[in-house]
Amino acid sequence: MRIDIITVHPPLLDSPFNHSIVKRAVQKQLVEINVIDLRQYGLPPNRKVDDYAFGGGAGMVMMIEPIANCINDLKKERAYDEIIYMAPDGEQLTQAHCNQFSTLKNIIVLCGHYKGIDERIREHIITKEISIGDYVLSGGELPAAVMCDAIIRLLPGVLNDETSALSDSFQDGLVSPPTYTRPAEYNGWTVPDILLSGHLKKIDDWKHEQSILRTKLKRPNL
After folding, report:
1. Using an 8 Å Cβ cutoff, are 33 and 5 in contact?
2. What's the pTM?
3. Quick one: 15 and 113 in the same domain?
């Protein structure tokens, strides 16, 4: 899988992609992540990528030309399955989105900044708009990192135990059951006996029941 991320602040993405599971996925060549500095496509003389909004109002807007030129250059090299814009008013990111995106070969992720991007980009170039929540951040870099992490961990070979992702919260519309590890007793607090029984069928049934109860309690909207 290849992910091309367009941003005006590339250093914001250094840490998320250089540690832990995502780093190992890159090292295994299971995913290729390219962070593209939009200012390379900025207009002369100072690589300008933003301008004042028509009609007035506070804040700057990312210009159409640098974004269009960047995406057109990328599309000359390969076909893209999705061109995703990280937008506060986009579709709320779900596990179902991540499952779908993980099956794609090439995607572009556009990170907004300032007061957003020229609407014509959204109307004519973007194929999907994604939000990670009903709040506004300084830019789309952190949401892009969140989405990419959620996608990459689903790629075959990324996790040591590929069944791990299948038991994550939201994969089956439920949150995960509680988990425990050693010691079996600490400060008088004990692990449920069923988990120590060795009876796999009963353990699986208990976990499913706990998932249902937790979902009703913590996420009744599901």
Report:
1. yes
2. 0.89
3. yes
